[in-house]
Amino acid sequence: MDKLAIIGGRPLYGEVAISGAKNSALKVMAAALLTDEKLTLTNVPQLADVDMLARLLAQHGALIDFNDGTLTLHAKDIVSTEAPYDLVRKMRASFNVLGPLLAREGKAKVSLPGGCAIGARPVDLHLKALAAMGAEIELDEGYVIAEAPDGLKGADITLPFVSVGATEHTMLSAVLAKGVTVIENAAREPEIADLAKCLAAMGAKIEGAGRSTIRIEGVDRLHGAEHRVLPDRIETGAYAMAVGATGGELTLTGTDGQLLGAALAVLEEAGLKIDETDKGLRVRKSEERCKAVDIVTQPYPGFPTDLQALFMALMATAEGATSVKETIFENRFMHAPELSRMGAKISVDGQNATVRGVARLKGAPVMATDLRASMSLVIAGLAAEGQTMVNRVYHLDRGFERLEEKLQNCGALIERVKD
Ligand code: EPZ
Question: pLDDT tens digit string along 38-57?
């Protein structure tokens, strides 16, 4: 397994082109199953997760072409309505093919995605929404077997708590349903509005995406379209925090500060100067050391859970003590013991952590069990004295496009070590 070797302590200067958002790309890709015409997506990041979903869509019958950020998907005929365990278990976003297959073909058999390192992550809300829309659902040997012989029907769906995945999956299912679907307590992440924009370009009728109530009027068919995936807000936050950890100045091109939601003000309070320019965002550090700022993770526009681990790495060398409360996932502090190996002072108590800033971290061999936690170790490594070896780089390859190249271009000493 590849590793990343980082020699820390060098400030970052230059430009980083922010990629298209992984978590939007994966949902708009599933929309390709809703039409027999071609869907062209641009600004698609070249990531292991995108390749994996493309493989699954190809298995359902989509013709795929991916070249230089442009992904065309043409599901003229659906040749299989079964999504096998091997392709779904590795990535939860694959589960989103269930609704589109059901909407288009009236039946689907999709493996349950199972839990993952950050928590149990059930899909009960997805299934309840589909059942409310008239799907007959059975669970058998780890598979969801669903049928809607007369098609899906519009329904009023109130989510008991905010779920990005359930909101998106319901949208993907409702666009071809008969009648009107209303989703209450919907997630408001920018990726939801991006999915709605793509579906609307395909002929869907959706109002309110990006707000708590989304109204979808089903249509008989969708057609081909072209859609540009929005910039990755988590990658944007990651490079901004890298500047916070190392100093220097980066221009993050092709992105926008609004996407960061509450994280923008938190980073500014911590001591980053973030200015909108015509290219994107210019990020600098105003003081030698960042200041501690408490955070609670929340659905958008709150502080994103996907930046929590990275922020803890930044706070590891801040002045003062930071309290971090994780409210979205039940097991999302696995980076804490790894950061501690580098000299961070972190105590964890259930869903709460306290980070007491130290003047300097020390490089060490470390390893994380998920994508964002791995990135927090990269940020810590960039700030630390000496060499950090981040193991299990395949996590990073799932979600950060050309990571080491982007960092090297800004002066970081980071290299992939092939095993
Ligand atoms: C999406 O996951 C993202 N993944 C996650 O990013 C992100 O952390 C999360 O939203 C929150 O922002 C993708 O977009 C591919 P949820 P998702 O449904 O949709 C519980 C990354 O690193 N829940 O909003 O799975 C769930 O267990 C990943 O890129 C149920 O109980 O998140 C969690 O505790 C990690 N039942 C909470 O809701 C359900 O049916 C919120 O999950 C669905 C969710």
Answer: 999 999 999 999 999 999 99
| 228, 243, 266 - which closes a domain | 228
Q: What is the pTM of this model?
A: 0.98
Residues 155 and 235 occupy one common structural domain: no
**Shortest-distance atom of ligand 1 to CA 371:** 22
* Closest residue CA from atom 3 of ligand 1: 23
Tracing tokens 């950061």 back to the chain, one arrives at 339
Cα(143) to ligand 1 centroid in Å equals 20
Instruction: Looking at the structure, tell me whether residues 137 and 202 fall in a common domain.
Output: yes
- The pair phi, psi for residue 204, each rounded to 5°, is -75, 155
Ligand 1 geometric centre to CA of 245 (Å): 27
| Nearest-CA residue for atom 20 of ligand 1 | 121
Domain count, the chain: 2
Give the Å distances, CA to CA, from 204 to 53, 101, 211, 216: 23, 16, 17, 8
Cα 172 to Cα 158: distance, rounded to the nearest angstrom: 16
Query: For atom 14 of ligand 1, which residue has the closest CA?
Result: 23
With a cut of 90, say whether residue 120 has pLDDT above it.
no
Residue 332 confidence class, pLDDT cut points 50, 70, 90: very high
Amino acid (one-letter) located at 348: V
Tell me the angle at which helices 190-201 and 22-30 cross, rounded to the nearest 10 degrees. Answer: 30
Do you find a cis peptide bond into 301, omega within 30 degrees of 0? yes
Establish whether 116 is a catalytic residue: yes
Q: Does 129 have pLDDT greater than 90?
A: yes
CA 188 to CA 40: how far, in whole Å?
25
